[in-house]
TrEMBL record:
Pfam families: Epimerase
Annotated EC: 5.1.3.6
Protein name per UniProt: UDP-glucuronate 4-epimerase
Membrane topology category: Multi-pass membrane protein
Organism: Lactuca virosa
Keywords: Isomerase, Membrane, NAD, Transmembrane, Transmembrane helix
Subcellular location: Golgi apparatus, Golgi stack membrane
Transmembrane segments: 35-54
Entry keyword annotation includes Metal-binding: no
Any single GO CC term annotated in Swiss-Prot or TrEMBL for this entry: Golgi cisterna membrane
Top-level taxonomy: Eukaryota, Viridiplantae, Streptophyta, Embryophyta, Tracheophyta
Subunit structure: Homodimer.
Record field: catalytic activity: UDP-alpha-D-glucuronate = UDP-alpha-D-galacturonate
Protein family membership: Belongs to the NAD(P)-dependent epimerase/dehydratase family.
Amino acid sequence: MKLSSSHMDNIPSTPGKFKMDKSPYIHRFRHYSSLAKLTFWSFVFLGLIVVFFFKSPSTSPPNSMPSDLSRRSLKTSSWGGPAWEKRVRSSARIRSQNGLSVLVTGAAGFVGTHVSAALKRRGDGVLGLDNFNNYYDPTLKRARQALLERSGIYIVEGDINDIALLQKLFEVNPFTHVMHLAAQAGVRYAMENPNSYVHSNIAGLVNLLEVCKNANPQPAIVWASSSSVYGLNSKVPFSEKDRTDQPASLYAATKKAGEEIAHTYNHIYGLSLTGLRFFTVYGPWGRPDMAYFFFTRDILKGKSIPIFEASNHGTVARDFTYIDDIVKGCLGALDTAEKSTGSGGKKKGPAQLRVFNLGNTSPVPVSDLVSILEKLLKVKAKRMVMKLPRNGDVQFTHANISFAEREFGYKPTTDLQTGLKKFVRWYVSYYGSGKKNSH
Ligand SMILES: O=C(O)[C@H]1O[C@H](OP(=O)(O)OP(=O)(O)OC[C@H]2O[C@@H](n3ccc(=O)[nH]c3=O)[C@H](O)[C@@H]2O)[C@H](O)[C@@H](O)[C@@H]1O
């Protein structure tokens, strides 16, 4: 709202008809009264903006792009200053020999929290970045943040689309690696809010890579792609060499776009880039929008749960992968990531470009997942079997993990029964087993 009065004065009161001023007094009077009007209406306008943003609900998922984006950008302004920089440096400081200094985006997310904690445990420097958006209950994200804070990890509250913030972070600390996990996740929500996927998974990724390419030294980047890129591919198990040009959801399409964008930044700027295709990750501190999580909640509440099946009663199955196995995969990818080769925004030689499946290699039907939960919770589920809606879900996922095994010894060791047991134990300790959980 920076309209200057001189600018206002030059605008004729009747457009197209410039009027001569009658006297200097009248001129000055008009000047002051229009200035007062302008100030008054500016306040009214600003007031309306404030009321609009602060009245909007904060617990339901954002439905439209403009309010979603503005809410995010309102949240990104509280950084900077010597104390803040000190905190950033201290969190990112390497505390072991040959350790890494890692910027973890999406650090208050499910995978981000576990990876950050594991890096810190082994002496790497970790700085988190998260916008704490309300796609799902932000109090869970705050609880994860509190957990990380106790082990000395600072999470900067900000958005990957905030270029000034990202540049500042690299100015303050020369990160050797970026673990990029910030994203708009979830397959089905893409039909409700498509723009949030473009905003985070495409625009946000490009923004981050722009800053990384200009950083000196350039970091190596490991980032979260998704098993969903296999889309309608029917050749199983899914291998990295299989086609990924038939995404079934916008979410999958944005992750696939990310893989192509990674290729470009590797090719032009010499950035070292590794994409990890996660297969339906589950476990303690998980995401409430995922089926295993809300099935648990609804079984305990006695609410019916929708179980999808394909046409002709075909099984819908997932290669559910336990979080600790995924963390090992993430660390393996970081440890084998080669240095980026560019500097000053210019490529100096060919750089590493990789994509790995991180799955469990053993798909389980969704109905079996429910049976395991029933046993662990000691409650019978109210099953509502229904046809797989046309909302982007694919029928089946199954990872071939031989590439990750060969490159960094990735070997998942947790079966669904064991992993869900750990999840349920956490769930009950966090939410209680009562029937009135509200999240
Ligand atoms: O592997 C991946 O890349 C993806 O894994 C999950 O996506 P999804 O496998 O669809 O996980 P859920 O939403 O938890 O669904 C698990 C299974 O339950 C089924 N389901 C889901 C919801 C429901 O109400 N009923 C139901 O039977 C789905 O069809 C699917 O087979 C994550 O949500 C994505 O963010 C991630 O990228």
